[in-house]
Amino acid sequence: MNPLGTPGIASFDSLAYDWHTAPMDTSAPPAGITPEDWAATPVAVQQFLLATLTVVALQQQQIAQLIARVAELEVRLNQHSQNSSKPPSSDPPSAPPRPARVPRGRKSGGQAGHARHDRPEPEPDQITTIRHHYPSTCPTCGDDVTAHRHDACAIQIQYVWEVPLVSPQITAHQYHTVCCQGCGGLVTAARPFRCATGRLRPAHGGAREPAARALPHQSS
Question: Hey, CA dihedral for 174, 179, 181, 187, is it positive or negative?
Answer without folding.
Answer: positive
